[in-house]
Amino acid sequence: MKRVFNFSAGPAQLPLDVLIRAQEELLSYQNIGMSIMEISHRSIHFKKVIERVEELMRELLQIPDNYKVLFIQGGASLQFSMVPLNLFKENKHASYVHSGSWSKKAIAEASKFGDIHIIASSEEQQFTYFPSFQVHQLNENTNYLHITTNNTIEGTRFTCTEELPKNGIPVVADMSSNILSEELDVSQYGLIYAGAQKNLGIAGLTIVIIREDLVGNTGVDCPTMLNYETYAKAESLYNTPPTFSIYMTMLVLEWLKELGGIPEIAKRNIEKAKIFYDFLDTSSFFSSNVKKADRSLMNIPFTTVSKELNSLFIQIAEQEGFYALKGHRSVGGMRASLYNAMPLDAVLELVAFMKQFEEKYA
Ligand code: PMP
């Protein structure tokens, strides 16, 4: 069996050890004679799984006690609607930082329910930097501030946490593509959400970390399944949750804990990204157009010197086993996603391949 080097932006590759364990446990989970997919979400076996995921999330991210950890379906995209539906007060006013294609979608959804103020945007330069913002720009009656901490498509990341408001306006963060990749002070945020299919496991599950006072205070008549209170009160077991996705997240979190948790993975992620960016910066053939200070550690868009060579690169890369390097259609070129599960060796192999390609075609 041959596995390729998989640079997909998501669903993304999983650690091999996680896949092997899932395979071992697939037919009979802990010798019960059934798989985890085939048992009740109210069984003791599954309850232990969901409780373990919450415990590991709390431990790895040091989530304070006054936060709930919720397991929701509908992808990160459903959060674009759930956030305004739950956090709007009567005046229905929110502020958004517009940093890429995903914030565009978040803004479009929230605008259906209330008044949205874009406090900073990098759209005029195709989102090639993370726009900075000042707390004093915020309307004091705004219900929350929304940011996307890693822009999966454009390859930028938010680093200036000192810019976050400390005046009680809750910060909502879409961390779909960088959760668990670096140190994070959860207490600076009112709500964090992330789809699981990059650093947390597989598609089907979205994790929401929410400060308790933001649950159950919506000024909107909110459908039951879109209300955080439903999940908080029932410990995410109001209805059938995505059981297999939650189980896979347990395996991923156990793998992460085993290798040393966030401090260790953050070190590895910085090292992998540095190797890649250092190569791009020394090459006269490959390049990145993202502002250096704002470069993502997870998603690295890059190009050669022409569209034709980009296509040729993607084609030959795939033949050589470097998979899913095609950039998002809105940006073009290439993109390498280096999530937690990406081994250092794979990055070194890719850079070596890029050097050879440059020598041949430059
Ligand atoms: N936000 C970000 C930052 C993303 O990268 C994505 C895509 N994976 C989404 C939101 C949408 O996620 P989903 O497909 O889970 O709805």
Automatic annotation (TrEMBL):
- What is one Gene Ontology biological process annotated in the Swiss-Prot or TrEMBL record? L-serine biosynthetic process
- Provide the protein's localization: Cytoplasm
Q: Where does pyridoxal 5'-phosphate bind?
A: 76-77, 102, 152, 174, 197, 239-240
Subunit: Homodimer.
What is the protein name for this chain?
A: Phosphoserine aminotransferase
Q: Show the taxonomic lineage.
A: Bacteria, Bacillati, Bacillota, Bacilli, Bacillales
> Which cofactors must be present for this protein to function?
pyridoxal 5'-phosphate
Domain of life from the UniProt record? Bacteria
Cite the EC number: 2.6.1.52
Reaction catalysis annotation: 4-(phosphooxy)-L-threonine + 2-oxoglutarate = (R)-3-hydroxy-2-oxo-4-phosphooxybutanoate + L-glutamate; O-phospho-L-serine + 2-oxoglutarate = 3-phosphooxypyruvate + L-glutamate
Tell me which residues make up the Aminotransferase class V domain: 4-347
The kind of enzyme this is, by top-level EC class, is transferase
